[in-house]
Structure formats: C-alpha cells, structure tokens
Write a structure and sequence with these properties.
The protein has 408 residues and is an alpha+beta fold. The radius of gyration is 22 Å and the shape is globular. Helix content is 17%, strand content 43%. The strands form two sheets. The chain has a 16-stranded antiparallel sheet that branches. A two-stranded antiparallel ribbon has the order 10-11.
C-alpha cells in the first residue's frame, strides 16, 4: 500500500479516531449556523420545535417543551442514543452503516479509486505522477463542496408530572466539516473545521397555569477545536506525526462553558379543533463562550404549533419557527434560512411498537423523516439539506441522519 493511500485513509478516519480529541469552531469553510444538537424528530419536521417539544431533546430548543412529554408513557429513558449525520458528497450513508466502507460516487470512494492507480514496476516509469494526477482530478471534482460528518450521542432521562417536568442528559457531539481545494493557493489542499463538545445538560418546566408553561435549563460543556488549512507540504512533512501535530500544535482547548436557556409555551383554545400553541425561547443566554475554541451565540426564537384532532391516527402536529430573531448568528442575516416549518403524523402507538413520519421545510429545502420503535429499540432517519451559503438556496449541502436508540 502506498504512503499516499495510507495518508488518505488516515484522513478518512480522522473524524472517527481523532475528533474525540479535537473540536469544532465556526470558521471560514462553512456558513452553517453553530449548534449543539440536532434532534432527528425536529429535523424531520423542518426544524420547527420551539412550540412543540415533547421529548428530552427539547432542552436544545425550548426547555418549556419538556411539559409536553406524554404523561401516559411514564419515563423517557435513552440509555444509548448514537447518531450519524453524513453529507452525501463525503460518503454513502448506506455503505457506512451497512457495509462499513465508502461506497462509490462520492469523495471517499473516488479518492480510494485514485490511490488505487497502479504503482510499482508494472505501472510504468512515472506511476507516482499518475497517482498525483488522479488525486488532483478528484480534488478538482469536489473543489468548493462542503464535506460533512457528525457523530453524536445524547444519553438522557426525563418525565412529565402534573405540573412539573424535567430532563437530564449527557451530550457528546463530534463534527467534521472540510472543503477541498486545488492545493496551490493560500487556502491549501484541505480546509478543515472540526469540533467535539461534551458535558451535562439539564432543565425543567413548570405549569404556571393550565395553559402557560415556563422552562429553564443549564449546561456545562467543554470544547476543543481545530480550524486549519492543510497544505500538501504539511501532509508530506507530518505524515508520520500528523496526529501529534494536530493535538499538540493546532488544537484549541477551552475551559468549561456554562450556559442558561429559558422558554415559555402558551396553549390556548384547547377546546377548539386545532388546539394551537405559541412558544418563545432564549437559548445560550449571554452566549456560550468557549474561549479560543469559539462560541455558540445567544438566539431568541419564536414558534407556533397546532395539534388538530384527526381520525384513524394517534396524532398530528404542525409547527412553524422563526429562529434567531435578533440576528445573533454572524454568518448572515437571511430571513429564509431562519424560517422552518413542518409536521409529524404518528401512524400508530401501541404497547409493542410505534411509528411516525415527518416532513417540512428547513432553510428553504424540504426535509423528510421517520422513526420506528419496537419494544426498547428505535431507529430514526432524516433526509435534509443544510444551507452553507449566505442565503437560502445558494449552496445546499445534502445530508442524511440515522439514529439508533436503546431505551423506552
């Protein structure tokens, strides 16, 4: 196996092996809004969750949503909750999950094919140049595209009582965003933003009246970050010590960052057919500051929802959010990137199984999601597009998300 192929295989394993030791900070590669956790349920509905909630993952959208955890189901316990969030350009979700390899027709597979260009005496006198030419062709093909990989676990527990509800969990979130360049300019060969954020998150909601619910939550998180433009020379010179070079020289570490969130949900006209609600939340009040490892800015968000009565199915919920009303995100001020709407239809919910389907619009692009629970095992799937441009529709990064949950 050639040294080039070894180096590239290390690069592909970067997110799986080294990212637990490094962490993401928002950098020049992408205009994606910074976040701590993306709920598969929320993303399936286009990201509209401020006035909906109903699970412990409400802690990342509006803590008042904890009050909507179904009381008839008792405790919500997620013992193990791993999730993979994968951009379509970097690899195939089906190949990664089921075959544990890159597959074809994507950056990972194309680069493996490039490094399979024959070398040695049977390949001619200039096989090294042939490999480099093949690699350059792949880099040119994917130049300017955002390559995304995320791995997350949110182990959690929660319950809703008559007026009081709570949720508590531990977050471990690893992300890699990279953009390929031709390698000859100042931006280097590969521009990388990476992060790993981890720590406890908890909160509660309380029913002030039968219609008004308030919530508070807090988090204590650590973060380390890597934002760097790798050159060809770096890969060559550091090929034997690349992991040490990243962790010792490029990694940015943070002390613990403490954040507080607050929210409210008002349910009105609950005797009507549509049973509407409105919600407001202030997330990461005063900014969640990680020092040299970046920050997650404060956002003020508003949402509306309806839970209309429907025959034959367990429930239907519709929602619409406008996030970051005060433009805390510095990437842009585009209104359409901040507008999210969608819905969920719960097909059935019986003792042994339940299933729901979802659809919506997220940052100007459609989303689809579904999950299926069998006893204590649940699998969730989401297909969506993240806008990494300055406005909705400029530069969509198509992604898929799969989560496997063990709990009840």
């Amino acid at each position: 196996m050639s040294l080039k192929k070894i180096r590239f295989q290390w690069l592909l394993g970067f997110a799986l092996t080294l990212l637990p030791a490094v962490v993401f900070a928002q950098g020049p590669t992408s205009r994606e809004y910074p976040y701590l956790y993306k709920s598969p349920r929320a993303m399936g509905m286009g990201g509209a969750y401020t006035a909906i909630g109903g699970r412990v993952d409400s802690l990342f959208y509006n803590p008042a949503g904890l009050s909507n955890i179904p009381k008839d189901k008792g405790w919500e316990v997620n013992i193990l909750n791993p999730m993979v969030d994968l951009g379509n350009d970097i690899a195939s979700m089906q190949d990664v999950i089921f075959r544990f390899n890159c597959g074809d027709n994507n950056f990972c597979g194309d680069m493996q094919d490039a490094f399979d260009t024959p070398d040695g005496p049977d390949a001619g006198t200039d096989s090294d140049s042939e490999q480099m030419r093949a690699v350059n062709d792949v880099i040119a093909k994917y130049r300017g595209k955002n390559l995304h990989l995320g791995i997350t676990d949110f182990t959690s527990i929660g319950k809703s009582f008559d007026r009081f509800a709570f949720g508590l969990g531990g977050l471990a979130n690893v992300r890699l965003d990279a953009m390929a360049h031709q390698g000859f300019g100042p931006e280097g060969l590969l521009e990388v933003n990476a992060d790993a954020t981890y720590g406890p998150v908890g909160g509660f909601s309380y029913g002030v009246t039968n219609d008004i619910f308030v919530g508070l939550s807090a988090k204590m998180l650590s973060r380390e970050s890597l934002v760097h433009q790798f050159t060809v020379r770096e890969f060559v010179e550091k090929q034997n010590t690349l992991d040490k070079y990243i962790t010792d020289e490029l990694r940015k570490s943070s002390s613990n960052a403490f954040g507080v969130d607050a929210g409210i949900i008002y349910k009105f006209a609950q005797d009507s057919r549509f049973r509407p609600s409105v919600g407001f939340s202030a997330m990461n009040i005063g900014d969640l500051k990680f020092g040299d490892a970046g920050k997650v800015p404060m956002t003020i968000n508003a949402g509306v929802s309806a839970n209309p009565q429907i025959a034959y199915f367990r429930s239907l919920v519709l929602g619409m959010d406008y996030i970051d009303i005060a433009n805390g995100y510095s990437q842009d001020k585009d209104m359409w990137k901040r507008l999210r709407y969608g819905g969920e239809l719960q097909l059935f919910d019986i003792l042994l199984a339940e299933m729901a389907v979802r659809a919506g619009m997220y940052e100007g692009s459609p989303t689809f999601g579904a999950d299926l629970r069998l006893l204590t095992f649940m699998v969730s799937y989401v297909k969506y597009s993240e806008e990494v441009g300055a406005y909705a529709g400029q530069d969509k990064d198509d992604r898929q998300m799969v989560q496997i949950t063990f709990g009840w």
